[in-house]
Amino acid sequence: WPSFAEEIDAILELKRQRRAVILAHNYQTPEIFHCVADIVGDSLALAREAMSVEADVILLAGVHFMAETAKLLNPSKTVLIPDTEAGCSLAESITPADIRGLRAAHPGVPVVTYVNTSAAVKAESDICCTSGNVRKIVEGLGVPRVILLPDEYLAQNVARETGVEVITWNGHCEVHERFTPADIRQLREGHPGVIVLAHPECPPDVVAEADFAGSTAMMNDFVAQKRPASVALITECSMSDNLAAQYPEVGFVRPCNLCPHMKRITLPGIRAALQEMRHEVTIAPEIADRARRAVERMLAI
Ligand code: 13P
Ligand code: SF4
Hints:
45% of the residues lie in helices and 15% in strands. By secondary structure, the protein is α/β, with parallel strands linked by helices. The protein folds into 3 domains: 4-86 and 263-282, 3-Layer(aba) Sandwich (Rossmann fold); 91-173, Rossmann fold, CATH 3.40.50; 176-258, NadA-like (Rossmann fold). Helix 1 (4-18) runs parallel beside helix 13 (267-276). 1,3-dihydroxyacetonephosphate is lined by residues 26, 42-44, 116, 130-132, 173, 199, 201, 215-216.
């Protein structure tokens, strides 16, 4: 089998040949995040960066909804995802028909859709949000009630922070729903003084036990600015691995859960994707135009 170094060299060469850039989410493994990615970040940053890519090819090292968002925002580029099965439990929890049903049940209430959804679901929405801007989007609408889908816990966390009434759906992130308040209490006992940062996809009782809740980029910024002696990131495992390599003076306690979808992306998969120019992400024009509008409205706020 080729070594990591051989895979990395081959990918760097293929990127040059194909005029490709690699956008990688914060949950990608360190060899992808630190050695082959051109741009790294949370869902919001990857969407913003995708818009201004000038290269011919965008390879998305992340999950399918992220690749679709890149294609929506930069439609003339070839967007590749190394594994078409890299999905997301949230994206799978809701269909366009479900949104139409909710609209009919709550006429006039705006539909805010988390980016962790298919383009077809985005197309039924008024505006999108990510974990990095959800509060701003919900407050910015200036209405007392919103439909916020499909992550029930994210919606409950935002409702508590903003006072806006939220109609939600029963989608959950299979990684973050597994954390419990008892996990946090236990790690505080074992690591006195540890600072606990939780992702807002965690259940509200978990977020309530944390010192801070925010998107993966917000966790990154917190560690970069405060350099805590000891920190626990209540999220996917690669997050701590990637930050630990950047901040050796910070001690990372690691009570993490793996995302099986993010972990489908590997160096050999990226190499094969660039070699064979697969798997290209396409979106039907009648869906793309409406979905793009919802994402662009989000980016304009
Ligand atoms: P972020 O937008 O915070 O990076 O989250 C994306 C995701 O999939 C979290 O589970
Ligand atoms: Fe989806 Fe959760 Fe995996 Fe993020 S971590 S891609 S929300 S299943």
